[in-house]
Every structure is written in structure tokens, then in C-alpha cells.
Design goal:
5% of the residues lie in helices and 53% in strands. The two termini are 43 Å apart. It is mainly β. It has a 16-stranded antiparallel beta barrel with strand order 1-2-3-4-5-6-7-10-11-12-13-14-15-16-17-18. It contains two helices and 18 strands. The protein is globular, with a radius of gyration of 22 Å. The protein has a single domain, classed as Beta Barrel (Porin).
Length: 370
């Protein structure tokens, strides 16, 4: 433990631009920001769908950001952010993200309740609406979903979610940047309140997780290029309290091209999880691809996402989502948006009532950014 603390201390010290006292010219001051979204949603499920659902609903998502940063006299930068879910899509108020960061000439370090470097550098299929991309991460799938009977791997999978972790990014060199994250076996939402006299109780399904990434951003002949590759390794817990001690590996690659208002982007995810692992049902692959266009206050997009995994039955579970999105900006921080999609989720059991084999859904809403 002392060696780890010593190494961390040396890394933080190396982030400084110059030696000497590192006093801030100004203290950290918090600024307030965030967004609020509400939309009306309608869905038509497959006739064999066995779960009672609303054909019409009102849904939402609201966040409040508290952000602060300062520059020290030696050029080093320090900051923090707290993000609170403001209860639009549930009646709960929850701290979603809470982290601090330090940046200097040796790179940037982030510590706290945040996602890993693979997620931070990942590219997604463009979406003109605000219902997000992907499958399980999409607000859209909350309208037309197979519930827990069909297992879905998201093209933008986040294996350790918001668990407390330590991340580091190198300085960018010719557009390239590398990153690494370390996550101990704590709660995947960062709520590490369970402790014992010997230390912090393990609440995750792994002993520790490592994530590495390599990303690039640049421009060639007016074409914007972004690309990233990432790898998550979760070392399975091998103790008496778990019956699935195997390791889990998750590989991601993604890219996005932009030119004169057009954006073409997508991602691919491959999870390798043996039958002796906690994520055995997600062993498989997922990918997405989308095209978007924005001009002035208007934006439109089309995307497709696919998942195929082992599932919980004898055959593979599959899911496909086709989506069209649109957005119109009424003024600064005020947007109207809509999305229409077709969703097909099939259970490996072959039982149509456990999936959602052909569902339609749509939404139209308002977003305020502040």
C-alpha cells in the first residue's frame, strides 16, 4: 500500500509545471449549470409481449452541474465537478458523478466517481435527438424494451460504470493520447459505504479492473477525424462469497468523421466472458453506425445498433434498433427534439413472450440547457 501511495504522490507531483510552492492565484469557485428534458413518448409492443406497459407516457431527464477550477501560480490546473440527477426520470435525487482532477505538463489525473478512460475517449453514432445512442444506454429503449428476458450488450458498454476510480491521461502528442484507469472492487455507482474493521468491504463482482485507451483527434483536408480503441480487464473475484471467479475482457473501437455539417460515426464492442464469470450472459458483440447532418438550427440523424450475446437461455439473444432523430433550436439553450424507432429483441429461448419481436416507438420533447 505504501508503494502505491508513494507512486501516486510522485505522479501528482510530476504534473506540476515548475517547482516551488503551488499556490492558487484564485480559490476554486463553483459555477452552476445543467439541463432539463421532458418528452412525451408512445410505443407499440409486439403482440406476444408479456409485460404490462403504457402505450403513452411522459418521461424526462434533468441534471444539475456544480463545476469549479483554478490555476495555480506554477501553471498547474485543479478542478472538480459534481453532477446531480434532479429527479426528472424518477422521484430520486442522486449524485451521479463526483470527481476531482489535476492537470499539468505531465498529463491529467482524475479521481472519484466517474467512468473510465475507455468511455471518456469513445465515439458514438450521431444522434440529433437527446435520447442518446446505443441500446441499453438509450432513453429510447425505456419505451420499447424486453425487460430482463433478453440480455443486451451495448455498443458503448461501460463495465465499471461510475465506481470510484483513478484515471490518468498522457499529454496529447500529434493528436494521439493514451489513458489508463484503475477501479478497485467497490460498488458500481460509487456508494462505498460498507466497511469492516479490516478495510473496505468488496461490493463489486471483480477484485480490480483496469482500463486502457488510445485515442486520436485531427483534421485532414477539412475532414475531422476521431478514433479510439480501448480495453477493460476485470479480474474476477476468487473467494468463498462468489461462484463465478473468472476474468472478463471488454474490447471497444470507435471512429467518427465530420465534414461540412455531416457526421458519420460508429462503434464496435466485443465482450469475452466465460461461463464462470459474473458477466457470462453478455459474452458476445455489439455495434452501431449512424449518419447525422446539422445546418443552422436544424439537425437530423439515422442510426442502427445491433447486439448478439450468449444470454440466459440455450440460444443467443439478439437486439436491433433503427432510429431517426431530429432537433430544432429555438434559441440559446432551448431545443425541440424528436425520435422515431423500430426495435426487435429476440430471446435465445425462442419464446416470443420473453422478447419484443417488432416494436415501434416515438418521442417529442423540449430540452433546456443552463
Amino acid at each position: 500500500m505504501n508503494k502505491v501511495l508513494l507512486g501516486t504522490t510522485m505522479l501528482v507531483s510530476s504534473l506540476a509545471v515548475a517547482p516551488g510552492a503551488a499556490f492558487a492565484s484564485e480559490p476554486v469557485k463553483l459555477t452552476l449549470g445543467g439541463y432539463m428534458e421532458y418528452w412525451v413518448a408512445a410505443g407499440s409492443q409486439d403482440s406476444a409481449y408479456s409485460t404490462p406497459v403504457n402505450s403513452f407516457d411522459i418521461q424526462g431527464d434533468s441534471r444539475i452541474f456544480f463545476t469549479g477550477k483554478t490555476a495555480l501560480d506554477n501553471g498547474m490546473k485543479v478542478g472538480a465537478q459534481v453532477e446531480i440527477a434532479a429527479g426528472a426520470d424518477s422521484n430520486d435525487t442522486e449524485v451521479v458523478r463526483s470527481y476531482a482532477w489535476v492537470e499539468g505538463n505531465a498529463g491529467k489525473m482524475i479521481v472519484g466517481k466517474y467512468r473510465d478512460v475507455v468511455w471518456m475517449t469513445h465515439n458514438e453514432a450521431p444522434d440529433a435527438s437527446y435520447l442518446t445512442a446505443g441500446l441499453t444506454k438509450s432513453d429510447f429503449v425505456a419505451q420499447i424494451t424486453p425487460r430482463n428476458q433478453v440480455v443486451i450488450l451495448d455498443p458503448n458498454e461501460t463495465p465499471t460504470n461510475y465506481a470510484n476510480k483513478l484515471s490518468y491521461f498522457t499529454p496529447s502528442l500529434y493528436g494521439f493520447q493514451a489513458g489508463v484507469s484503475f477501479t478497485p472492487s467497490n460498488d458500481t455507482r460509487g456508494d462505498d459505504y460498507l466497511d469492516t474493521t479490516d478495510g473496505i468491504e468488496k461490493t463489486g463482482n471483480f477484485d480490480q479492473a483496469w482500463a486502457t485507451s488510445l485515442s486520436y483527434g485531427g483534421e485532414f483536408a477539412g475532414v475531422g477525424v476521431k478514433a479510439a480503441v480501448g480495453y477493460d480487464y476485470m479480474n474476477g473475484r476468487n473467494d468463498a462469497e462468489v461462484s463465478n471467479p473468472g476474468d472478463v475482457h471488454n474490447f471497444q473501437t470507435s471512429a467518427a468523421l465530420s465534414y461540412q455539417g455531416f457526421t458519420l460515426g460508429g462503434s464496435f464492442n466485443r465482450m469475452i466472458a466465460g461461463e464462470d464469470t459474473f458477466n457470462a450472459a453478455k459474452d458476445g458483440h455489439a455495434w452501431e453506425l449512424g449518419l447525422g447532418y446539422a445546418e443552422g438550427p436544424y439537425a437530423v440523424s439515422f442510426s442502427y445498433a445491433h447486439s448478439a450475446v450468449r444470454g440466459i437461455y440455450a440460444g443467443d439473444d439478439t437486439a436491433d434498433l433503427y432510429r431517426v432523430g431530429a432537433r430544432y433550436t429555438l434559441g440559446p439553450g432551448v431545443d425541440l427534439f424528436s425520435s422515431v424507432g423500430y426495435f426487435n429483441a429476440e430471446s435465445g429461448s425462442g419464446d416470443a413472450s420473453k422478447g419484443n419481436e417488432g416494436a415501434w416507438g416515438g418521442a417529442a420533447g423540449l430540452r433546456l440547457t443552463f
